[in-house]
């Protein structure tokens, strides 16, 4: 079931991101606007377009969330492998499971280390000049 849903979600997400699908959506909206006067802006016409867009939006939320979750997990696995196979600190593997506060502490530590490295590089450049 998971494999079928993942495959279907990927296919729908990929297809829905194509320019032709956007064009179809624009044409549906234009058609809706143009048929408004024809049907005297009836409540039925409004109900049809509102129901249709609500259903599509509701379903697309799940499709997009599924593809983003898989993409994020795959990216995280790749980054973890790069960390594991390099001279980087292995303590960073799996930090995506920490709280926001704990992740912020890691970010602040990384920013401080980057500033120190930048200052050292600037000092070396001044010595060379």
Uncertain residue segments: none
- Derived structural class: mainly alpha
SSE succession: HHHH
Average pLDDT metric: 88
Q: What global shape is seen?
A: elongated
Question: What does it look like?
Answer:
The chain is an all-alpha fold and 129 residues long. Helix content is 83%, strand content 0%. Helix 1 (2-16) crosses helix 3 (43-85). The longest helix is centred in the middle third of the chain and has 43 residues, at 43-85.
List the helices and strands and how they pair.
Blueprint: H1 2-16, H2 19-38, H3 43-85, H4 100-128
Helix pairs in contact: 1-3
Task: Throw out a few tags for this protein.
129 residues, mainly alpha, 83% helix
Provide a brief overview of the structure.
It contains 4 helices and no strands. By secondary structure, the protein is mainly alpha-helical. The model has no long low-confidence stretch (mean pLDDT 88).
């Amino acid at each position: 079931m998971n494999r079928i849903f993942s495959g279907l979600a990927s296919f729908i997400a990929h297809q829905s991101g194509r320019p032709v699908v956007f064009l179809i959506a624009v044409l549906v909206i234009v058609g809706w606007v143009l048929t408004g006067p024809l049907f005297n802006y009836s409540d039925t016409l409004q109900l049809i377009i509102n129901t249709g867009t609500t259903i599509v939006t509701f379903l697309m939320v799940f499709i997009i969330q599924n593809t983003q979750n898989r993409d994020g997990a795959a990216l995280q696995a790749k980054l973890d492998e790069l960390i594991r196979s390099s001279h980087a600190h292995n303590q960073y593997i799996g930090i995506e499971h920490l709280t926001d506060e704990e992740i912020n502490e890691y970010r602040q530590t990384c920013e401080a280390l980057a500033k120190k490295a930048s200052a050292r590089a600037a000092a070396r450049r001044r010595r060379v000049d």
